[in-house]
Give the backbone structure.
Amino acid sequence: MSNLSDDRLIVALDVPNALAGLNLAEKLGDAVSFYKIGLGMLTGGGLALANELKEEHGKRIFLDMKLFDIGATVENAVRGLAQFDLDFLTVHGDPYVVKAAKEGASGKDMKILAVTILTSLDRADLDGALIKSGEIRDLVQERAGNAFAAGADGIIASPQEAALIRALPEAEGKLIVTPGVRPAGAALGDQKRVSTPAQAIRDGVDHMVVGRPIWQADNPRAAAEAILAEIRDV
């Protein structure tokens, strides 16, 4: 892996299929060492792409599946995915889901990251989903603490809640990974709770996931390098 790369930046391969994902990775070259492959590409060869990027190109892989089911099903699904020796896998942050996922990942290095509250949601969305009342930041902190207690290796949360989570005693030695990072001047897209890359790092984020501002850019490598330059000295 090139020492030019900085794995604090994870590029989301939110493109239609594995061929497009591989093409983007080739454009980014040694500037990027860590990629996220999500549910949207699962039927487009996502697992095959994950294997190719890891085995042939030495990249780290974050599989963003946000698994949510009964415990036995989650455990079996994670056990199957763990055979691919990927780096991160997301599950919903409910404690029983986290515990089942950790059982499924037992003996492997794959980190289980718990989703707190999606960064695309606001209070009105939570009301519609019958989520209990309260400020989102408070609910995120509470869900993060519960997930850590259940064994989660890290948390997915918006950068706006990162400092609160980092302050939890249970967060010692745990990962905070955030989507919702947008360079200054970038369009928000479907994200509602956002921050700049440098501020996210200052707030305790270990890895930031950036998609559209990179893959929609005329020059994706230059866009990635601009983000890396912003966080280099933070």
Notes: The mean pLDDT is 91. The chain has ten helices and eight strands. The longest strand covers residues 60-67.
